[in-house]
Design a protein that fits this description.
Layout: H1 8-14, H2 40-48, H3 62-74, E1 79-83, H4 86-97, E2 103-107, H5 112-120, E3 128-132, H6 137-143, E4 148-154, H7 166-175, E5 180-183, H8 188-191, E6 201-205, E7 219-223, H9 226-239, H10 245-255, H11 258-278, E8 282-286, H12 296-302, E9 309-314, H13 317-327, E10 332-333, E11 343-345, H14 357-362, E12 370-373, H15 379-391
Parallel strand pairs: 2-3, 2-4, 4-5, 5-6, 10-11
Antiparallel strand pairs: 1-7, 6-7, 8-9, 9-12, 11-12
The structure holds pyridoxal-5'-phosphate.
């Protein structure tokens, strides 16, 4: 493609402009493990990096490359590295920047497994960690040590919806030569571009908004510089965290409508949030679109919209929350998020159940917290469903 599209929706549809040699309008699924070389010299040149020919699907695959380059374009990054899951992307970043004697600073309410793998597995290899509330810059400042090798943010965080000040934290980190990685899963590049805000690495669980149809598991890492990209790609390749071409094909298809889906889900989410906030049985609600959110102004600065994720607590605590989850009919009781259907779940007993009691308490993941991922159904139907379920409490 000679004309490079600049609008977000055009980028979603046309992507990085990869051309299939047979003229297929849609990038086909290159369902192959290995690629034939033209000659012994060509094979040697591919391995030496002197030719961009394909070698082996764990290393790179055309269907996956199309997706990687497209998401890199959306995030304004240098290039991307597709991974088998969001957690494979998280683990690849950790393996790339951490090691024995190195230290990570992160949010005490990150996605449960992103913390559990540091405290349960990387700790066995001598990695040190400090989890603080990164929505408070002073706590980040106090957590930095001489051996801090990575600051890992998730904002808005899962499941508390707390917002961290990406530019301020990056400025602080870079004064200490520490790279910053942001898990941008809750926003997608449509609503927030961490690399433009100062981060070095951004990652996604593409299982969520990027694919958006609850039918694949996938992850991606986007680096701002060539050096970081190469570092992350080589870790992914040798650890076998690669994405499967069929998964990449479905994700690329889902990605085309991401902005349309998010516009709609966000509109619904705003109405649902207003409904819940006014409901007498709701004790509190965290949604970046409500003025009651403690980082409402910061959210408006970092994000172009409040998104479709919210958490709330009911006046009756956990028992009331269980009653709600057992009585919804349209909302699906399931983990995951960012799909076309509205999902409701209970982090303390589900997504964050592997965390210690202390870690949950620190992270504000209370027993009463219910998380809602608003879908693209009719807002009236979502609200009517919540209303009837709330009336059972
Ligand atoms: C789901 C999720 C992950 C993990 O992604 P998988 O695709 O399930 O491995 C990481 N971070 C966040 C914020 C998530 O929501």
């Amino acid at each position: 493609m000679t004309h490079k599209p600049s609008g977000f929706n055009s980028k979603l549809v046309h992507g990085a402009g990869a051309k299939d040699p047979l003229g297929s309008v849609i990038m086909p699924i290159y369902q192959t493990s290995t690629f034939a070389f033209e000659s012994a010299d060509h094979g040697a040149a591919c391995f030496a990096g002197e030719s961009d020919g394909y070698i082996y699907t764990r290393i790179a695959n055309p269907t996956v490359r199309d997706l990687e380059k497209t998401v890199a374009l959306l995030e304004n990054g240098y290039d991307g590295v597709g991974c088998s899951s969001g957690m494979a992307a998280v683990t690849t970043v950790y393996m790339s920047y951490l090691g024995a004697g190195k230290h990570i600073v992160s949010h005490n309410a990150v996605y449960g497994p992103s913390r559990a793998i540091i405290e349960g597995t990387f700790s066995k290899f001598g990695v040190e960690s400090t989890y603080v509330d990164t929505t408070d810059l002073e706590q980040v400042k106090a957590a930095i040590r001489p051996n801090t090798a990575l600051i890992y943010l998730e904002t808005p965080a899962n499941p508390t919806i707390g917002i961290s000040d990406i530019p301020a934290i990056c400025k602080l980190a870079h004064q200490h030569n520490i790279p910053v990685c942001v898990d941008n899963t809750f926003c997608s590049p449509y609503l927030q571009k961490p690399l433009d805000l100062g981060a070095d690495i951004v990652l996604h669980s593409m299982t969520k908004f990027l694919n958006g149809h609850a039918d694949i598991i996938g992850g991606i890492i986007i680096a701002k510089t060539e050096a970081d990209y190469k570092k992350v790609r080589s870790t992914m390749v040798i650890s076998g965290c690669n994405m499967d071409p069929h998964q990449a094909f479905l994700t690329r298809r889902g990605l085309k409508t991401m902005a349309l889906r998010i516009d709609r889900a966000q509109e619904n989410a705003m109405r649902v949030a207003e409904f819940l906030e006014a409901h007498p049985k709701v004790a509190w609600i965290m949604y970046p679109g409500l003025r009651s959110h403690p980082q409402f102004e910061l959210g408006k600065k970092l994000m172009s919209g409040p998104g479709a994720m919210m958490s709330f607590g009911l006046k009756g605590g956990l028992d009331a929350g269980k009653k709600l989850m057992d009585n919804v009919q349209l909302c699906v009781l399931a983990v995951s998020l960012g799909g076309i259907e509205t999902l409701i779940q209970h982090p303390a007993s589900m997504t964050h159940s592997k965390l210690s009691k202390a870690a949950k308490k620190e992270g504000g993941i209370s027993d009463e917290l219910v998380r809602l991922s608003v879908g693209i159904e009719e807002a009236d139907d979502i609200i009517a469903d919540l209303e009837q379920a709330l009336s059972k409490i």
